[in-house]
Design goal:
2 helices, mainly alpha
Length: about 35
């Protein structure tokens, strides 16, 4: 049970970091459209 919680939490953190890196690769200087919104 404890291991499952740790694995789920680690997977969630990795997904968050991966999404952030992917967004940075897509828009290295930041999305102007996102700032307007």
């Amino acid at each position: 049970m404890y291991n499952t919680v740790l694995l789920g939490r680690q997977a969630f953190l990795q997904a968050k970091i991966g999404t952030r890196i992917f967004a940075d690769l897509a828009n290295p200087r930041g999305p102007p459209e996102g700032e307007r919104m």
